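[09:14] KT: can someone run the structure on this one? pasting the chain below
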Amino acid sequence: ASLYVMWKQGVDTVTWFNMRDDAPKPSYDTTYQSGVYFRGDTVAQDTPKPSFTAFRFPFTAYRTKGVARLWGLAPARGKVLIQARRGSSWRTVTTATAASNRLFQGKLRVGRGTRLRAVQGQDVSRTWLVF
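[09:31] RB: done, structure tokens below
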């Protein structure tokens, strides 16, 4: 949601302080663990945190008067599926198109408490709870 707010204010570049967590020297208590990767013994052994997905494929939906405004940055240009959680499964409820800058937007009539996500190919955004 913060990337959306910054975009609305005209911000076009966001950087992240650490891509991978600092080495725990002398301990985790004295180091920065703000990366989007858990630190492995080597860079090849690093593993992504949930924040990696949120940073790489941000998606949000703000509801006003029964209509959710959808916003996101897809991993690539092209078709993006917007899915809603229905019971124990996900169902595509609309689509959007990510432009060459990866930005996609849309509107969707949806009730409070609906869980939404965006999907492009094998990439899936974090889930967003509409309020």
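[09:33] KT: thanks! The longest strand covers residues 89-98.
[09:34] RB: yep, looked fine to me
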